[in-house]
Structures are given as structure tokens and as C-alpha cells.
Amino acid sequence: MPVTRHIRKGKKKGKRQRWRTSRELARWLVEDHGIELDAAALPHNRIVDRFIAPPGFVAVGRDDAPVAVDALQGGWGQFGRVAFCNPEFSTALAFVVAGVGSVLSPPRGVPWLRRCVFLLPANPDTRWFRLLVDVGARVGFFASDGTSSGRIPFEPEDATVDDSSGAAFPCLLAVLDRGAAPRPAGAPFVADLLDPATGRSL
């Protein structure tokens, strides 16, 4: 199935979309999935050292230099075998298309990703959600702990370790592995419930 047909431009919604994933959740995700590349990041919100920055980004020093600029151009597998993608939510569709393509059909001569882990809003009525389900990604919704309603914490750019705020909406984690079997037409969709602190199945 051609994934490019799902592309639609998003709208920018402000700086809050560039807040970073909470340190605790990021640590568990890296440990559990072996993440080597953050495919949609800036120096302050990356969860691993290797990251792809948005178009127009200019590094001011060696420590914040990305491995590439503009994740929507070219495959991600040339920079690592397992990628994490928590894009600005207004551009989620384009990044999901790029991540799916990097796993299932990278450009000629570019290595494929073994796995891509997406952190996204829990919006089942979107085209990117349907795409992930159709290509066989494993999807988990962050469970409510009685107070969070599945809204995982994010941290502003100048946050301290304890300075975080829950997302304005519930989120999900989708994991796409190379070799995943596409969902047959009409087959039921099954999802996990995830711990908001660790991203692990409950």
C-alpha cells in the first residue's frame, strides 16, 4: 500500500508542542526498545544523542549538532536501526508516513529501520492512526491512574527534573517492526493499556 497518499500538511500550534517527553518515560522507552535515533527533536527535547532536527535548524555547538535536518527527506535507517518519533502533533501525519516508509519501504540504497516507536495523541479518527493500524503496528493507549486520564507528562524547555505538565489530551504509543503483518481487512483491532510512567503494558 503506498503510504504517501496519507500526507496532509498540519498547522503549527505554538511552543508547547516542542516540550520534551518526561525523563522517566524516555528512560524506559530507550531501555525497552533500544532506541538509537530521535527522529523529530531539538537539542533540548531529544531522548538520545542522535537526532534529526527540523528544517532551518542551525547548531550552535558540537553538542547540539543533529545527524540530519528535515526528517521528511530520506529514510531514517541510515542514522540508526531503532527510531523514536514524538513530532509536533500538528504534523503527526507527515512524520508517521516518513517513519512507516523508513521501516517498510526506505529509499533505494538507504538501510531500513528495524523498529519505529511513535508517541502520538490518542486520536483513532485520524488518517495516521488508520495507517499505523493497517500496516500492523502494535498500539497501546496510556491508561488513567485516577488523576491523569492517560495524559502523560511533558516538560518545557527550561524544566527542572520535577517541573512537568500533563498533555492536554490522552496519548498512545505505536510500535512498528520490520516484518510486521498488515492487518487483514475487517479484522478486529486490539490495543494494549500502558503505564503512563513507563510505557509498558499493564
- Give me the oligomer status: single chain
Count of DSSP-assigned helices: 3
- Class derived from helix and strand content: alpha/beta
In angstroms, what is the radius of gyration? Answer: 16 Å
Secondary-structure element order, as H and E? EHEEEEHEHEEEEE
Give the mean pLDDT.
Answer: 82
* Overall CATH architecture: 3-Layer(aba) Sandwich
Segments where pLDDT lies below 50 for 5+ residues?
1-16, 160-164
The share of residues in extended strands comes to 15-25%
The gist of it:
With 202 residues, the protein is an alpha/beta fold. The protein is built from 3 helices and 11 strands. The chain has a single domain (18-194), classed as Rossmann fold.
Key terms for this structure?
alpha/beta, Rossmann fold, 6-stranded mixed sheet, 3-stranded antiparallel sheet, 11 strands
Write the layout of secondary structure elements.
Elements: E1 20-21, H1 23-33, E2 37-38, E3 52-53, E4 68-69, E5 82-85, H2 92-104, E6 115-121, H3 127-134, E7 138-142, E8 153-155, E9 165-166, E10 171-177, E11 192-194
Structure commentary:
- The chain has 202 residues and is an alpha/beta fold.
- It has a single domain (18-194), classed as Rossmann fold, CATH 3.40.50.
- The chain is built from three helices and eleven strands.
- It has helices at 23-33, 92-104, 127-134, and strands at residues 20-21, 37-38, 52-53, 68-69, 82-85, 115-121, 138-142, 153-155, 165-166, 171-177, 192-194.
- The strands form three sheets. A six-stranded mixed sheet has the order 2-5-6-10-7-11, covered by helices on one side. Strands 1-8-9 form a three-stranded antiparallel sheet. Strands 3-4 form a two-stranded parallel sheet.
- Helix 2 (92-104) packs parallel to helix 3.
- The chain starts with 19 loop residues before the first strand and ends in an 8-residue tail after the last strand.
- 36% of the residues are buried.
- The model is unreliable at 1-16 and 160-164 (pLDDT under 50).
